[in-house]
Structures are given as C-alpha cells and as structure tokens.
Amino acid sequence: MATIRQLIQTSPTKANELFAALADTSNNAVKTRERLLGDLRSELELLAKLEEEHLFPVLRKHKETKDLVTPALNDNKQTRKLLAELEQIPKGSEEFGPKVAELRKAFQQSVRDERKDLLPAVMKALSDEEAQAIVEKIEEGKAEVEEAKRAEAEQRRAEQRQEREQTEKLLAEQKEAANRERETREAARQTAEQVARTAEAAAESTRKVTQNAAETVQRVATAPLSTGSLFFDAMFGLWGVPSGRSLARSGNASASRNQVSTQDEEVIPLAEETLIVGKRTENSGTTTVRRYVVEVPAEQQVTLYDEKVVVERRRPVTDKATGEALTELTVEMVETSEVPLVAKGVRVREEVVVRRERTKRVETVRDTIRRDEVEISNASGRSGNRRAALAYSRK
Q1: What is the CA radius of gyration of the chain?
Q2: Model pLDDT, residue 129
Q3: Is residue 243 part of a domain?
Q4: Least crowded by CB within 10 Å, which of 70, 97, 276, 358?
Q5: CB 336 within 8 A of CB 306
Q6: pTM across the whole model
C-alpha cells in the first residue's frame, strides 16, 4: 500500500504523459487528438473527484489544513473550465495547441502547489491512521474506476465481436444466395439452350418431311402412268403396262374407248387411291419467362429503449449528515437512446420451372380418294350395271 506522500507525488504521472502525447500531435491528427483528449478528461476528472471525496473532507476537520481546501477546489474548478473550453475548440484548428499548453500549465501549477503547501501540511496534521485511511479510499476508488473501464471495454469488445459475427453471417447468407442465384441462372441458361436445340431439331425435321413430300410429288408427276391412280402408282410402283394386255384407261368415263380383246383371258385391275398422312412440327406459340426486379415496401417492428436522466428531490430518511457535506460535487449521468440498424439479406422465395410437356391427341384427316369400278354389259342388248367396291379378287 502506498503512503500519502507517494500518492500525492505519483497521482499526476498519467495526466502528464497524456499532456505530452497530446502536445506532440499535429493539426491533421484529429482522431488521435480526440482519443487523447477523452483519456485526459477522464484522468483529470478522476483525480479531482477522488481528492474532493476522500482527501478534502479530512483536511477540513483539522485547523492546520482546512484553509488549504479552498485554493485546491479553485484549482480543480479552473482545470475543469479550461478543459471544457478545450473541448469546444475544433481538434484540427490552430487554437487547439495553445489551449492544450494553457491547460497543461494550469494543471502543473496546481500539482506544484499541492506538493509545496498541501503535502507538508497533511504530513504534519494527519495521523498515520487518517493518512492511511485516505490512501485506502483513494486506491479503492481508482480500482473501481479501472474495473468499470475494463468491464466497459469488455462489453465493447463483445458488442464488436457480435457485430462482426452478424456481419460475417450476413455476408455468408448473401454469398449463399448469390450462389443459388448463379445456379438458377445457369439452369435457366441450360434450359434455354435445350429448348433452342429442340426447336432447331424440330425445324430440321419439318424441313426434311417437306423435302421428302416434295420429292415424292415430283416423282409421281414425272413418272409414266400405268393405272388410273397416281397415288396407287406411287405406292406400289406400277409404272408400266404389262405386255400382251390391252387396257383402256382414262381419267373419266366420257374419255373411255372400246377395245376388242383377242386373248382368252383378260385381267382388269381395279385400283383405288389411299391417303398418305404424314406429320410435321409447327411452331404453335412461344412462352417467354422474364425475371425482373421490383421494389415493394417492407416493415418490421423493433423494440428500442431510451434512457433518460431523472432528477428529483425527496425528503431524506434521516437528517444526520453522512459522508462529505457542504462541498462542491458534480455528478454526470449519460442519457442513451437506441436507434435501429437496418441490413438486407437475400433468400430464394420460390422457383419458376420452365419445361415442355408432351400431350397426345388424335385428329381425323378427311379427303377424297379415287377408285376404279367396272360396268358390265352384254351384246344382246340386255344390260346390267354392277357396282363393286374395291377388291383384289372377286368371282
């Protein structure tokens, strides 16, 4: 445990170090000046507070030292005044440096006065028990402040760690969403390519069917006829007339002619046309799916807390004075308000699948076909008409 002499002599050490560091900064080091000034303000306020709470009340009890309290309080008041003026000055201005020097000079003069006048009077007037009690209280006060600082720093680190984890989580979610979106785009691209390839194959198939049909028609149109049916000839390849047979063929009954046969037997083929139905693929429509981005309003409720400082007067429980009384005392309490922080994440709401489905339907194709029929007449003048349907052999 330090003595009262050591306490008074070593207390200003940290403040003097902060003054020296602050005086070495330039006008461009605004952030550094703000940080050092905050530390200096805390240190000077702590020194003054501990003196006013634990040292000055004891000095007032002794006749030899009570007159030293008022000048010491005035020094603390002057230090607080200069500190407040320094905080109002812009940290990057030319006025900041001279104001720091003025505050440093006033503080060091106060320290010299305490060492020159206050310390000898305290050592003379106070007993060892009183001096040691003051030292213990001041050391306890410093320890409490240091513990509060450590707790606050730990809380800040925990909050920063939590914010960092939330940011990393948000980035991971955004990355995952981007990967899903990229995969969706790739699947859509592959689907579009497949659709394009299928459409090209269908067009090629239609072209081939059309070309084959045209070639068939050309062959039928240019081939020599052997029956009365072009389609029959195309299907069965009857391109010539059998030798030794005489046939009368015509496209209609009015153009027919008679031929006398000298053979023992004549075979008259009765032909008919057949429907040749093919298929080709036509484009019956195009379905286009386009994804676009819209903005819609969104809202979410969040509970926020505000802390306000309430000052009230009340009747004391007892009128007995406890602790320090009839002295100047300044208490500061910070008011806080929570504000919402908004971030945005991306997730897949739903998927749109574009595919083709094949259905089957049956259509009836109607057209007219031609076929051969026979009309039989005898030479006796009796005639009879006989209509027969197409048959390959009938007796």
Answers
A1: 56
A2: 85
A3: no
A4: 358
A5: yes
A6: 0.41
